[in-house]
Amino acid sequence: MKVDKSRENSPRISSLPFVHDPLSLPFPEGATQRLLGLDMDSVSRSAFLTTIPFIFDSARDEIKWLREGQGWYQALSGIANGRQVLFVKTQVGASNVLDCLCFLRICGVEVIVFVGLCGGLLSGADHGDLFMPGEVVRLDLVSEVVATRKYPAAPDTTLSQRLSHLVGTCPDVALRSTGPLASLTALCQETTEVLQMLRDDGVDGVDLESAAFLTACSIWGIRAVSLLVVSDRPLDGDYLIADDKPSKKCLDSARSLTSLLLSNANDVFR
User: Fold this and answer.
1) Count of structural domains within the chain
2) What distance in Å separates the CA atoms of residue 185 and residue 95, rounded to the nearest whole number?
């Protein structure tokens, strides 16, 4: 099939609003119902985002939500600690997170806390430890589509400090690392050679989504932070894809973290 390249520079196409600013387009009628199963007025500007089913289930059980929606994404909307919040689950992987994130941005979400899992490379890191990466090495390819490397894959500083203080008050959640983390494209990249090289270079953990998530949020002006519970230690042959994962320690820590965030939502998003 022959593609007419001249259309790419057509004045008519290049003048479309979304080419320069997708937020300038009228919001599609019924979009939040189709994607979140919620009305637009149920979409808060403060949101939690996860790719992990049991983290979403923990959030559902933690408080009495006003509304639960099932669209392309699962969503909970309600009041937590006096603050209207949204809790959304999308599928695993950077491209899925970016698709959901783009929609949340169009909905007007301004602050997002991503709650997920990571593999621990830091010596002594154990299941259930909490990582809050201060920077993310972009090895995932997907974030390269969002922006060149001159844009940082790093969290909002003020939000990070606030969450670090909050976690420090909870005996059930141990903040083990705020150091570098690397995002890979897929679990199959977690070979011993790659992981050992990353640890030798001072990387504390690996995941699939944080680079794309933090890069996009940085460009789009969304204040964001990534909170990751250690689910496995791949350099020790302890892989997430094993039958006994996630372990009880990982599950318990993720539940405690979710409870902590929701019970202090007003401080998290102030």
Assistant:
1) 1
2) 10
